[in-house]
Amino acid sequence: MTDDLFTDLQQKDLPFYLPSAPGYSSSWNENFRGFDITIPNGELFYAETFFDSKVSDRSLEYFLENDTNDWQATDWRALEREQLSEVTFKNIQWQHDKLMMYGKEAYLPRYSAWYGDSDKPYTYSGLTLYPKQWNKGLLYIKDKIAGVANVQFNSVLMNWYRDGNDYMGWHADDEKSLGLNPVIGSVNFGEARDFVLRRCDNAEKIVIPVKHGTLLVMKGELQHFWEHSVPKRTKRNHDRINLTFRVIKS
Ligand SMILES: O=C(O)CCC(=O)C(=O)O
In total, how many domains does the chain have? Predict the structure, then answer.
């Protein structure tokens, strides 16, 4: 009987707090080397280092390399918007979008880019984005996560947080074009940040640390019952890039 010899080694602890209340559970998925997590009205998959440091380091570089600035040494926050708009990034066409907020136009507290199969514009939170063609780096990541998410993603929203002052406010990915119960594959490179889920009816929160190489998949009814955000963390000084792969149905 050697089966139980390695039992302790195989047991893994979820690296963040999940309530032990009914409706919450997690189990280690050896196949994909991450956790399958159930929360009330939602499902998640979480792999803290889905991408190893070699792929993660290269991805961050690939998304920020450009013709003029050392991507790592540049303090992107310190650049004026006009200066940053003059930088030609080699692989990603970053843009600084504006939204109407309380009757006034305001720049989003992050940069974004939208890539995908379709030539149709995608509208979310009052913003319309026009898809660019996939590139090698994005296709590599998309292919790596397709098996875990068990869907064929056809688009990705990229968000670049220049430092901890950039953030994402509360929202759900519940646009009609994503279908009834969207599967969202969220990939993270660079600075570690908190991804916070908040239940819509009782404001219960789950704080999920997302790091260099983390994959988080959201699925099931989650977008109808929970919102999410990436709050400011002013002590975080480095770039973070998040990619949310999506399936646009129409
Ligand atoms: O940056 C993140 O982790 C979240 C991005 C997000 O909420 C979104 O793209 O809808």
Answer: 1
CA distances from 127 to 64, 107, 184 (A): 23, 11, 19
Ligand 1 probe mutation, 112, 161, 186, 212, most atoms within 8 A of CB: 186
CB 242 within 8 A of CB 190: no
Q: Does ligand 1 come within 6 angstroms of the Cβ of 195?
A: yes
In a domain, 194, yes or no: yes
Is residue 239 situated within a structural domain?
yes
In DSSP notation, 60-72 reads HHHHH-BSSS-TT
What is the residue-level pLDDT of the chain in tens, covering all 250 positions? Answer: 455 555 544 558 999 999 999 999 999 999 999 999 999 999 999 999 999 999 999 999 999 999 999 999 999 999 999 999 999 999 999 999 998 878 888 999 999 999 999 777 788 777 888 899 999 999 999 999 999 999 999 999 999 999 999 999 999 999 999 999 999 999 999 999 999 999 999 989 999 999 999 999 999 999 999 999 999 999 999 999 999 999 998 7
Tell whether 3 is covered by a domain. no
